[in-house]
């Protein structure tokens, strides 16, 4: 059975903020680090950070390896 879809205004992206290149791609930039933590595996512990990405809500933040984020976006770590 189908139900009526109620639109969520937080899903709407302002297209004026998105710069699309000729090959129809864009670069997603991180806005801020929300949390610092670690991912534990059997024999390994990997430091990770929760990143809030541009054009996405906070609920869509992702966990990324800290080392990789420091290498590419070192300016985010001045806050800590």
Automatic annotation (TrEMBL):
Signal peptide: none annotated. Residues 28-80 form the Chromo domain. This is Chromo domain-containing protein. It comes from Vitis vinifera.
């Amino acid at each position: 059975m189908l139900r009526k879809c109620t639109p969520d205004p937080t899903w709407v992206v302002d297209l004026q903020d998105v710069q699309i290149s000729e090959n129809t791609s864009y670069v997603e930039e991180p806005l801020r680090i929300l949390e610092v933590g670690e991912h534990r595996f059997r024999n390994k512990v990997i430091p990770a950070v929760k990143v809030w990405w541009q054009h996405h809500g906070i609920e869509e933040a992702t966990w990324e390896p800290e080392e990789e984020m420091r290498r590419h976006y070192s300016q985010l770590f001045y806050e800590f």
